[in-house]
Amino acid sequence: MTGRQYASLGCVFAGIAVALGAFAAHALKAQLPAYELSIIEKGVQYQFWHALALIALGFWNHIQPQRMLSFACGFIAIGMLCFSGSLYGLALTDWRWLWPVTPLGGTSFLVGWFLAAVTLWRKA
Hints:
- The protein is an all-alpha fold.
- Helix content is 83%, strand content 0%.
- α1 (3-26) runs antiparallel to α2.
- Keywords: Membrane, Transmembrane, Transmembrane helix.
- It is a multi-pass membrane protein.
- Pfam families: DUF423.
């Protein structure tokens, strides 16, 4: 994917985070226990912050295309799908098989941040 495509994907993820946060706060508040709502809120928080990071890294990669930065964007996008997606699934369904996916998403976030840091370090 190009930097612009990653930035665009970040915008989509940010919009989804806002929609899910509003849906949880209004429509699900009376339907779910507080613990499940807190799991959704955590997923929304991580998704939103990483969506903003994906927008920034995508623009950076658009201005100065770099292979490692593309990988960083990819890992952050995969992290959002795995980490936040599994939290949503765990809170809204009985699919307990999703629990191992959450740390895989967290690890993907960490790899993405590490690759972004290495890219920045090399450019300094």
